[in-house]
Amino acid sequence: LKQVFNKDKTFRPKRKFEPGTQRFELHKRAQASLNSGVDLKAAVQLPIGEDQNDWVAVHVVDFFNRINLIYGTICEFCTERSCPVMSGGPKYEYRWQDDLKYKKPTALPAPQYMNLLMDWIEVQINNEDIFPTSVGKCKEEVL
Q1: Is 75 annotated as a binding residue?
Q2: Is a pLDDT exceeding 60 seen at residue 6?
């Protein structure tokens, strides 16, 4: 298990919500509804009186944390040798483009693609212009 939680690998620690903030309370409400076995449609429905952007932001961060945890548990089985292509089955190949190092869509081994993807998502989530920590200030055009 030590390898799964090694920060130098692909696992990243969860992004936390500050206790006592409205986003923390929304996160607790989201966790409670998702863990209760209720209808998913009802679980993600915007609570009355809450800001839609804040609610979406909480779920985006939770989704990232869950995917990150899942990927952390399987990354040792998908190496550049065993997974030389990032694909979605035999019909789909994913290519990386970031307009920085990879200016054109580039085929990469799955682990390298996933590392770049998780890094990119983490930068987006930590960008105050996209996901501000002050409640009610998300840019609608980004989400």
Answers
A1: no
A2: no
**28-39 per-position pLDDT tens digit:** 766 666 565 657
Residue 2 lies in a domain: no
Q: What is the CB-side half-sphere exposure of residue 136 using CA atoms within 13 A? A: 4
Q: Is the pLDDT of residue 143 over 50?
A: no
Global pTM value: 0.64
Contact (CB, 8 A) for 120 and 12 = no
Q: Tell me, what's the pLDDT at 110?
A: 95
Asked if 95 and 106 count as a contact pair (C-beta separation under 8 A), the reply is yes
Do 72 and 85 belong to one domain? no
Q: What is the count of structural domains for the chain? A: 2
Q: Is 138 annotated as a binding residue?
A: no
* Backbone angles phi and psi of 22, in degrees to 5: -65, -35
Residues 92, 41 share a domain:
no
Q: Which domain holds residue 70?
A: 18-77
Do 86 and 72 lie in one domain? The reply is: no
From the list 134, 116, 119, the residue with the least C-alpha distance to 57 is 134
Q: Are residues 89 and 107 in contact, defined by beta-carbon separation less than 8 angstroms?
A: no
